[in-house]
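Note to self: the last two entries modelled the partners one at a time, which told us nothing about the interface. This time every component goes in together.
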Amino acid sequence: MVICILASPIIVIRSFGASRPQAQEASNTAMTLLSKTITAFGSLLLAHACYSAREHTALQSIRAATAATLTSSSTAATSLPVDIIIETIISTFIILLGLVLGTRPLRPLEWRVWAGKIEREGEEGFTDNAGAVDKDYMGNPFSVLESRPNFVDIRKQRKEFAEWVQKGDGKQGQ
Amino acid sequence: MAQVPVQSIHRDPQLFYWILFPITIVMILTGVLRHYATVLMASAPKKQDQKATREQRSLLHGINVRGNHHVLSKPSFTARRDALITAYESGAYLKNPDSRGQPPPNPMSDPNAMEGMMGMMKNQMAMVIPNTLIMSWINAFFSGYVIMKLPFPLTIKFKSMLQAGVATRDMDPRWMSSISWYFLCIFGLQPVFNFLLGSDNAASQMAQQMNQMGPQGGAQMFGPGVDPNKQFLAEAENLAVIEHHSVLDGVEQRLLAGIKV
Amino acid sequence: MAPPILHSPVQLSPAAALALSQQAPAFLRSSSSTVSSSPLSTLLSGPEKSEQWLQYENLIVSCLRTGDDQAAHQCLRRLVARFGDDNERVQALRGLVKEAEAQGNGALEEVLKEYNQILDENDTNIPIAKRRIALLRSMGRLSDAASALVQLLDFSPTDAEAWSELSDIYLSQGLYPQAIYAIEEVLVLAPNAWNIHARLGELQYMAATAPGVANGLYQKYMAEAVKRFARSVELCDDYLRGYYGLKLVSKRLLNDGAKATRQTDDSEFALPGTSTLERLNELATARLSEIVRHSAASDRGWRGYSEAEVAAARALLADDASAIER
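The predicted structure of the combined assembly is written out below.
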């Protein structure tokens, strides 16, 4: 985690000199890092709020117990102080912000945009932040209707492949 | 804060090992056993002969043409419609054209339908019998006492669920009886079965129940007791009343208006 | 990166197929070899994944293609161990392996005989029926393949893949109207398939430009080709194939220009007017040149097109430019 945080300025700095695609990739990484940092900070804040609330209740009950033994009159249960409540709410929103920043870009909703994305970007358009291709990405789902895997002419494909290999060898030999 | 004094019941720690674990393990094993019993009992889906396949898929074909008529140009649609209507009305696609017009056979006397019902019965039995057995086993041996305390507080509403068989009015709902543990196991072991047997296992009763509730479109459409001839005639009528329009009408204008250079 | 062998490897380039089949040994090693349906072993080895079997299937095809028969046999053995000998898909795969290894026509006839025998026992075995048709076609018996396919489609008219194959067979025989009819059936089953719309446009264009086509028919085919390409582009932004066809067809129609457009009855599509055609041509040119430009620079987000398609588009654009200069 510490190393990641230390590395982030380096990535950002390097991105200034890089060409456009690299810059985008680097900014992607920086984005994930940012979102993770924000989420971690929010979680920390939330944990702190929880701890404060717990401490406060414990203190209250001790005070109530001592008060009961001293004056034998039960004090009403007091509610949490406002600052703890505010801290809880703010930390929740910070976590939300971090998570939202970390999500991958939304999938296109319109059919033609989605189809165009498949055609234009290929696998690249369907990678997550780590760079792995989506599991359910399958290219054009209708390409099966043209490639027709159940009718594959395996002998022809074998021959073509052998020719391709020979040609490749020839190229390498030159 | 006025705290309810914490109820403490002294239990023999051995209860934990001799009741809680056995019930859980037995439940898991029964689930696994039931899975394999269903797999073994399941008869392979009955092969349809060519004629039955033809009957069903021809009807589906008609439905497809009706639903997607807009991708066709008018002449091609008309040609298809005329051919389909003629074939439907003459009963060319029927499995046995001789039995046209006769009332459909009683599903009870149809051996195919009986087989389907037997399969359903088998599944039901595989579910009901082990559950009954285990419940009576638990009732006979472990009923009537508290076996564990849940690590989190609960409201009073849970009393009837968690303390079945222990009729004590003032007891904290966190205390659980053995029969309640059994019920929790029934509903809570789903992920365990998924983990052990894969996600489409037969032990998952909930999935079965969902299936029973959900609409079974395919099965109903070609189920026993439906007269295919009537379906064909109805489909022919549906096809005949279509007012054809093509998605290609004015597509250039749409394209030019929609996409800016 | 995980091996992307979940989709069919039939249309991969030779290099990609080679890379895929080279993954085979690692994949075979990584997944346990003894898959049985005995309860204990499944409990121990964890749940089986359905993708795994798909991967085996695809590996068989790509290994056969690259000549790695040994790995193909190994995959097939595992599939047989899991699904049994008489599973329809396993039968088809075994047939595929035999076809690939067959030497000479005698061996192929042998395989064909086997297929016939299986089909005699069970005439609804669609995978085997498809293999038989593919084998017939591979052996050059086109009309046999076509009639077998028609028979298959008679009892299973909702099989889009088979309709598409039928269209291809008819096309290779030069029977354009039949090929168009078959591809229209595919569209009925998959109404939003943009590549099939483009394919239909291509077929119409081929039918229109075939030698000896009457003028009326020519216009009818061309009119629908324009519309089909336009529809494919409407379904898919920046669809290279669709724009290519649109440009090709509209350019040709503009060159024809002077020919009086015949008055068609309203049941058929009319050719669009000259101004519409010009605008379509402009649109297609603009989009194509943008695609070519971005692909040449290999910009991020424009790397999905195949090189051959981009090269063809560039050639078409260059052709256009030189025509204007003249």
